């Protein structure tokens, strides 16, 4: 059957226009995989400085709200290439700031030097704080894997109360990796999801951007678990991870909106995470409670929270993917999984 028989009133001129329309539709449909490829390539560029074990590749996934979609999967090591994590605990109350890390309190960053350890009783208004030997000035810290295991758990072993908790990267098995499964195209920002299960996201160097540190649980046992100057410390289940974004992550890849700062990483819902401040050093305007807003190009992105806030993101605005210990596992973010 000829096309004139199907559309007898079109005429040749209108049929030519219709043919052009069909061609454009076909071209648009054919461009979708190319756009997807370009998106995957941009994601790979974000993680150019990460220790990548595999990926990023496309996988099918089920997001936290039950949406079945396409995600990217990337398996990485938590070893940052550009610096060596630490230090965390000073060894003496005479030590300067370069011998220890940082602590977060009331929105501020405090150097964990010797004098900070010495003054904890006054700092917290509680005389039970005593992380050092009053005769020698030596700081009590967890110097072994066994001590780390006993102190860095919710029910701190009483033998390690009043200790500075320092778990080292070498305590984590060399073969340990983390697989992030994140929406290839983030959904529209429409809700607020907590970060405590999946974490906030993953930094451009492959290190986990976690949710808030459980400060009350740590302080309740008269322990201190400092972060290094880059905002990270070690958990035996997660490995090295961040609870704060400091200047260490300010030199990330350029974002699609350069005026908003460099890209720190990608959130677990797929939206970009940019630096705390704009490129000119000013505070970003009109942030929502998740630390995000819509840029001039109409797309949504986050800005990392202030380092002292203990909240890299306040929440996540779209459905999230999965953080997995098994790179072959299928992401179903609706299933209740133990926190890695």
Describe this protein's structure:
The protein is an alpha+beta fold and 340 residues long. The relative contact order is 0.16. It has an eight-stranded mixed beta sheet with strand order 8-9-7-6-10-11-13-12, with no helix packed on it. Helix content is 19%, strand content 19%.
List keywords for this structure.
alpha+beta; 340 residues; 8-stranded mixed beta sheet; 19% strand; 6 helices; disordered N terminus; 19% helix
Query: Helix- and strand-based class?
Result: alpha+beta
**Uncertain regions: pLDDT < 50 for 5+ in a row?**
1-34
The largest pleated sheet is described as: 8 strands, mixed
State which percent range the strand residues make up. 15-25%
Number of strands: 14
Number of helical stretches of at least 4 residues:
6
Q: Per the principal axes of the C-alpha atoms, what is the gross shape? A: globular
The rounded distance between the terminal residues' Cα atoms is 62 Å
Question: How confident overall, as mean pLDDT?
Answer: 89
Helix content range: 10-25%
Round the Cα radius of gyration to an integer and report it.
25 Å
Order of helices and strands: HHEEEEHHHEEEHEEEEEEE
Largest sheet: spatial strand order: 8-9-7-6-10-11-13-12
């Amino acid at each position: 059957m000829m096309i004139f028989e199907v559309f007898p009133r079109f005429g040749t001129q209108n049929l030519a226009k219709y043919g052009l329309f069909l061609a454009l539709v076909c071209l648009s449909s054919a461009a979708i995989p190319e756009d997807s490829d370009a998106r995957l390539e941009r994601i790979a560029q974000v993680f150019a400085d990460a220790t990548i074990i595999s990926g990023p590749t496309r996988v099918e996934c089920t997001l936290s709200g039950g949406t079945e979609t396409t995600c990217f999967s990337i398996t990485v090591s938590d070893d940052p290439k550009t610096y060596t994590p630490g230090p965390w605990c000073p060894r003496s109350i005479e030590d300067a700031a370069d011998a220890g890390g940082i602590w977060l309190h009331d929105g501020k960053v405090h150097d964990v030097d010797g004098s900070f350890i010495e003054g904890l009783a006054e700092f917290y208004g509680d005389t039970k704080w005593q992380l050092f030997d009053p005769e020698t000035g030596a700081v009590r810290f967890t110097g072994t894997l066994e001590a780390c295991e006993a102190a860095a758990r919710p029910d701190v072993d009483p033998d390690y109360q009043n200790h500075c908790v320092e778990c080292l990267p070498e305590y984590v098995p060399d073969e340990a990796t983390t697989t992030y499964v994140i929406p290839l195209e983030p959904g529209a920002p429409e809700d607020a999801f907590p970060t405590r299960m999946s974490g906030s996201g993953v930094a451009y160097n492959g290190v986990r951007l976690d949710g808030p540190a459980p400060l009350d649980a740590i302080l309740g046992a008269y322990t201190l678990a400092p972060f290094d100057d880059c905002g990270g410390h070690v958990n035996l289940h997660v490995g090295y991870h961040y609870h704060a974004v400091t200047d260490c992550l300010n030199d990330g890849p350029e974002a699609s909106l350069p005026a908003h700062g460099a890209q720190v990483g990608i959130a677990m819902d797929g939206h970009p995470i940019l630096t705390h401040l704009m490129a000119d050093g000013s505070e970003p305007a009109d942030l929502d409670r998740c630390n995000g807003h819509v840029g001039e190009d109409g797309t949504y992105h986050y800005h990392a929270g202030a380092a002292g806030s203990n909240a890299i993101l306040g929440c996540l605005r779209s459905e999230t993917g999965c953080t997995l210990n098994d790179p072959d596992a299928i992401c179903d973010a609706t299933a209740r999984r133990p926190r890695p």
